[in-house]
Amino acid sequence: MIKPKTTKKETRKELESLVDQFIKKKGTIQQVNMGESGLIDGKYNTSHIGFNEPKQDRTPLNHVVAAIQQRKHTPPTKPQAKKKPKKVIIYDDFGEPLRWIWEE
């Protein structure tokens, strides 16, 4: 059985009930200024930003792109279908079937 997705309304209610339980257990909520939690020593944490490395030279691949474009514009060739052997019946002089043979 697939569990139905929770709606935003249900999620909000659950969070509110969790906060109410925390407060009832004598928990305190500390107010923090907006953006303050993302700062380390008053500065933004830039260790995860990927701009620390020097710019690398790119390898030109124009010939690869040209080959791909050429393949797009040429119609694909269909492989030759192998002819399947055909089952043929052999009759005698009186029209009675004798045997089956395979012809290519």
TrEMBL record:
Q: Which InterPro entries match?
A: SutA_RBD
* Residue span(s) of domain Transcriptional regulator SutA RNAP-binding: 6-39
Q: Which domain of life is it from?
A: Bacteria
Q: Which Pfam families match?
A: SutA-RBD
Q: Know the name of this protein?
A: Transcriptional regulator SutA RNAP-binding domain-containing protein
